[in-house]
Design brief:
Largest sheet: none
Oligomer: single chain
CATH topology of the largest domain: Ferritin
CATH superfamily of the largest domain: Ferritin, core subunit, four-helix bundle
Distance between the termini: 65 Å
Helix content: over 70%
Order of helices and strands: HHHHHHH
CATH class of the largest domain: Mainly Alpha
């Protein structure tokens, strides 16, 4: 529609009907500026793309670990927490997929879709976690995700404040509150387990 409007205005401007030609030329300039703005918004920076990759990897990591916890944990509160983590990070993945699709990128939904280094790190973490059982398993899981959450929160805050793409900034900013709640819940569960 923008191109049609631009073409009509250009044709009329070329016809040059008095002062109307100048007005139409100004409108043409505004439309061209809008088009440039749209193009700039559709071109993310390397920082934006790195954040999308990082956030996608993190969301998948949390989903894989949460599934393991739901199967192996004996503590109902930890299993419930893992269920909430799984739900949240599944929704995050869906949002990231939509955001990444605008840039012809994808977000991993399976371990096999991760980059080799990321897949190796996840397998190593998963293997280290699953050697434990019972209360030790729960403590190790909570310690592990607490560290992850702290790093993730820092990355999301940096993206919300400094990334170029407004959609990436908005996504990051809207996620921060929930990530902070997760971190607080992790700390509460960790303290409860330590007091047992």
């Amino acid at each position: 529609m923008r191109w049609q409007t631009w073409n009509v205005l250009a044709v009329v401007a070329l016809g040059g009907v008095g002062g109307e030609a100048a007005v139409l030329a100004q409108q043409t300039t505004v439309i061209q500026q809008e088009r440039t703005t749209v193009q700039q918004q559709a071109t993310p920076t390397q920082t934006d793309l790195q954040f999308l990759d990082f956030a996608g990897e993190y969301a998948l990591r949390q989903q894989v670990l949460a599934r393991a916890v739901r199967e192996q944990s004996r503590d109902p509160a930890v299993r419930a927490y893992a269920g909430r983590m799984l739900d949240f990070h599944s929704r995050q993945t869906a949002q990231l997929q939509q955001l990444a699709a605008a840039y012809n990128r994808s977000v991993p939904t399976e371990v096999s879709e991760l980059q080799p280094g990321a897949a190796d790190r996840l397998r190593s973490t998963f293997d280290r976690l699953t050697v434990w059982s019972g209360e030790r398993f729960d403590r190790e899981y909570l310690n592990l995700i607490h560290t992850d959450q702290r790093q993730m929160l820092e990355r999301y805050q940096a993206a919300a404040e400094g990334n170029a793409d407004p959609q990436v900034r908005t996504f990051a900013a809207q996620s921060i509150g929930q990530l902070q709640q997760h971190q607080a819940q992790t700390e509460t569960l960790s303290r409860r387990l330590a007091s047992l």
